[in-house]
Design a protein that fits this description.
The protein has 465 residues and is of the alpha/beta class. It has helices at 2-8, 38-49, 65-72, 87-100, 111-115, 117-121, 138-143, 179-182, 227-241, 257-270, 283-288, 290-300, 314-319, 326-345, 366-377, 396-403, 428-435, 440-444, 449-452, and strands at residues 14-18, 55-58, 77-81, 105-109, 128-131, 151-153, 197-200, 245-248, 277-281, 302-310, 352-359, 382-388. The longest helix has 20 residues, at 326-345. Bound molecules: cobalamin (B12) and iron/sulfur cluster (SF4).
Length: 465
């Protein structure tokens, strides 16, 4: 009976389950938890345009597993995009799906299948697992899953030029209580720029090899989305929904100078508005291409500049294979301080750093950490985004620490709260005190008086990692 009633509300026998912590689209823990999943958006768009209709549910739209259990009743197929931080949720959802639909099939893909296949294989409820990109395989897999082995290597497009424009109405709609400020199918503001926010991707892979990330070891490189295509999508979204600002989710926006020059030339001229945007760069390339950087900030409204400074100590930067030095970091900081001051004098809104900082890196000494906090204090226009180093599978250092048994991020709990301890042997008590400002005298050593006078309390800046 329950199954029959549940089926009445279904448009399809196939359900795509959006993943995230329970309730994130009902009572969100923070703004970033509300962002939409481009993998889901792209693949559902491809499916629907090929006549394969899927229903959508979301673990973020329920506040308990029993509700999800009722919603999953009656489907033949469950599809999920699994990242490491959603692996435990995906595991639980698949278990429930099989309990209520013993004959149903579970299809999974996503980053975790690429970087931690053993953990995916360990979940018997995952019937078909796709590693890598899914755009050129998803339709066939969904239409005829039994034609595929348990593990399949996916097929991606050669270039993002071949990607369809995501139909954003295929993204989950937040709970009623959030709708006024969410601006679905665009996204809410997290304080970087005005709403509605359009999150976009212009490039897929960062070519550097920082040991805590090095995504180019597991995401095949692909051509960048042509500038005209990016602008056309923004204008389409603006005409339809009204865009306030953009978040460019590229791991590394500040790469390919030729593309960036074309962006500088066309975006201010062809976009409906020069929407302010958040995007990521590196300090060494800011130093290498200062004119390009300044033009992007001034002419294209790149006003929230995410930089992975990570550390203020050369020793640690080397250990991370960051290929940026203390000097590179200080160059970028002083350069932006100057540009921002100039723009303020001209009566314009100054740009800000979204400064990514890591603490608790294995091998970091107290003095390394003081140097990092000193560096943070020299930034005049900044949102500090501090996290404890987290050993993710896929990254070289993550794999190493997992193999050595030092990771505290178990497969049952990749889920991290900001203050969670992530690596064995790290003195997190010291870092808690550091962020609470208890070592401010040490940190202030050698700082100019205006920098030293800044509050040394950064506990609030600690984010999930
Ligand atoms: C945008 C982004 C975010 C956004 C939005 C996340 C979201 N809701 O989608 C924000 C900023 C919130 C975010 C946060 C974090 N992120 Co993030 N993020 C990204 C980023 C840059 C792009 C993701 C994306 O949209 N890719 C494009 C889409 C199209 O790719 P995709 O989702 O992987 O899907 C493709 C395939 O996987 C496959 N596929 C997917 N599902 C399925 C299903 C089937 C059946 C099939 C056949 C195929 C298939 O096909 C798709 C098309 O090719 C990636 C890096 C990257 N370049 O991908 C990191 C990345 C996914 N993030 C990562 C991490 C670690 C985090 C954080 C923990 C913190 C951090 N260090 O950045 C937080 C945690 C968030 C949380 N809620 O707890 C890691 C994940 C590592 C891992 N082992 O899983 C990545 C890989 C970055 C990295 N190099 O470390 N992130
Ligand atoms: S941390 Fe940043 S620069 Fe380093 S590989 Fe990852 S995205 Fe690239």
């Amino acid at each position: 009976m329950l199954k029959f009633l549940a089926k009445l509300s279904h448009k399809s026998d196939i359900v795509w389950l959006d993943l995230g912590d329970l309730g994130d689209l009902v009572y969100p823990d923070g703004p970033h938890e509300q962002w939409q999943d481009h993998g889901l958006g792209l693949l559902r768009t491809i499916l629907h345009q090929n006549g394969v209709i899927t229903d959508l549910l979301s673990t973020r739209l329920v506040t308990n597993w029993d509700t999800l259990r009722r919603q999953l009743h009656g489907y033949n197929m469950l599809i999920m995009n699994v990242r490491s931080y959603t692996f435990p949720i995906a595991h639980q959802a698949a278990k429930i799906f099989k309990e209520v639909n013993p004959d149903g099939i579970v299809l999974v893909g996503g980053m975790h299948a690429t970087v931690a296949l053993d953990e995916m294989l360990g979940v018997s409820y995952f019937d078909k697992i796709c590693r890598g990109a899914g755009e050129n395989i998803i339709v066939d897999m969904v239409k005829d899953p039994h034609a595929f082995e348990r593990v399949t290597v996916g097929m991606g497009a050669k270039s993002m030029a071949d990607w369809l424009m995501i139909d954003r109405t295929l993204w989950p709609k937040p709970a009623r209580r959030l709708r006024r400020n969410f601006h679905w199918p665009l996204e809410p503001s997290c304080g970087w720029g005005p709403p509605p926010v359009a999150t976009i991707l212009t490039s897929r892979v960062c070519p550097w090899q920082c040991v805590f990330c090095n995504e180019n070891s597991y995401i095949p490189s692909m051509g960048r989305k042509p500038v005209d295509m990016v602008i056309d999508e923004l204008n389409y979204l603006d005409n339809k929904y009204g865009v306030g600002s953009i978040v460019i989710h590229d791991s590394m926006f500040f790469q390919h100078p030729r593309w960036l020059n074309e962006w500088i030339e066309k975006y201010p001229r062809k976009a409906n508005k020069i929407y302010p945007y958040w995007a990521a760069g590196r300090s060494d390339t800011v130093r290498q291409w200062p004119d390009l950087f300044e033009a992007l900030v001034r002419e294209t409204n790149w006003d929230t500049i995410s930089i992975g400074f990570e550390s203020g100590s050369d020793r640690i930067l080397r250990l991370l294979n960051k290929e940026c030095t203390e000097d590179d970091n200080y160059f970028a900081i002083e350069f932006l301080n100057r540009i921002a001051d100039d723009m303020e004098r001209e009566g314009k809104k100054p740009p800000k750093f979204w400064a990514n900082i890591m603490l608790g890196i294995p091998g970091e000494t107290h003095e390394d950490a003081f140097k990092t906090m000193r560096m943070v204090k020299t930034m005049r226009h900044v949102f500090p985004s501090i996290s404890y180093y987290a050993p993710y599978p896929g990254s070289a250092l993550g794999y190493q620490l997992i193999a050595e048994g030092k990771s505290l991020m178990s497969k049952d709990n990749y889920h991290r709260f900001p203050g969670d301890e992530k690596v064995k042997g790290i003195d997190y008590g010291f870092y808690r005190d550091l962020l609470a400002g208890k070592y401010d005298d040490e940190v202030n050593k050698g700082l100019a008086s205006y920098q030293a006078s800044k509050s040394g309390v950064f506990s609030e800046a600690l984010i999930k990692a």
